[in-house]
Amino acid sequence: SGHATSGGVEIESGRSTTDPGGYTTGKWTAGFTSEFSSAPAVTVIAQLTMRGPDGSWPVLTSNPTQSAFGTAVDEDQMLDSERSHASEKIAYIALSQESSVELRRP
User: Fold this and answer.
1) What are the φ and ψ backbone dihedral angles of 79, each rounded to 5 degrees?
2) DSSP-assigned letters across all residues of 27-66
3) Which of 7, 44, 59, 71 has the fewest beta carbons under 10 Å from its own?
């Protein structure tokens, strides 16, 4: 995790420090460790855990800015109409521009 520049592309990856909860109850604003020179063009989020009996997926709740993005966990409404959900761990990667990037484990 961290913030770096490679080939002129600013990149940051990380994990949630506060676990976002359900869409209606637990929106979370993730602050980048360093500000981007402009809002990232690409932000990808992934859910790392699966808690509770209902399936869920992470969603962006606001457009990324130079310093942060909003996220929450949403869930289906097949068996019930509510969208609250247990807190989940989220990972993210943000890029300042569209690019082809190869990610490798250290």
Assistant:
1) -105, -15
2) -EEEEPSS--SS--SEEEEEE----SSS-EEEEEEE---S
3) 7
